[in-house]
From TrEMBL:
Residues 3-116 form the PhnB-like domain. It comes from the Bacteria. This is VOC family protein. InterPro entries: 3_dmu_93_MTrfase, Glyas_Bleomycin-R_OHBP_Dase, PhnB-like. PANTHER family: PHNB-LIKE DOMAIN-CONTAINING PROTEIN, PROTEIN YJDN-RELATED. Pfam families: 3-dmu-9_3-mt.
């Protein structure tokens, strides 16, 4: 096996979504756009598949799914280097989407995302049970994750 990629199945917005994600996620790159051949499924020349990468992770966006909606059972998780990066990506993905809880949102295409500051996994691997418990308690009160508030909860006495 040479590669595993996440495939997102859209009704008709595969290229639009891939371009949006590549413009939104730092380190993303648009790859090949594969068109429907004559006699193929759908109008010849339409977009069938778009290859792209999100910070080096291979992704596929595919058209041809008129009835299956995305669910929270599968999400894309982005570990952000700092609060500014998290805020920038959150704000962009949220346009036309819906905020949920604990760093989760659904974007305009219905894809679920978890935007996590590097502080969260770092704090959950450090300290003692009481500190980690305070971090989780703080996290459960958040919609968009606030790294400084997590740090403050960890360091509270």
């Amino acid at each position: 096996m040479t590669q595993i990629a996440t495939s997102l199945w859209f009704a008709t917005q595969a290229e639009e979504a891939a371009r949006f994600y590549c413009a939104t996620i730092p380190g993303a790159a648009l790859g090949e756009i594969i068109r429907i051949p004559p006699g193929g499924p759908g109008p010849a020349g339409g977009v069938l598949l778009v290859e792209f990468a999100l910070n080096g992770t291979p992704m596929l966006a595919m058209n041809g799914n008129p009835g299956e909606a995305f669910t929270n059972a599968v999400s894309l998780s982005a570990l952000c280097d700092n609060q500014a990066e998290l805020d920038q990506v959150w704000d962009a993905l949220l346009v036309g989407g819906q905020a949920q809880a604990c760093g989760w949102l659904k974007d305009r295409y219905g894809v679920a995302w978890q935007l996590v500051p590097e502080a969260l996994p770092r704090l959950m691997k450090a300290g003692n049970e009481a500190q980690r418990g305070r971090v989780i308690a703080a996290l459960m009160q958040m919609v968009k994750i606030d790294a400084a508030a997590l740090e403050a909860a960890f360091n509270a006495s």
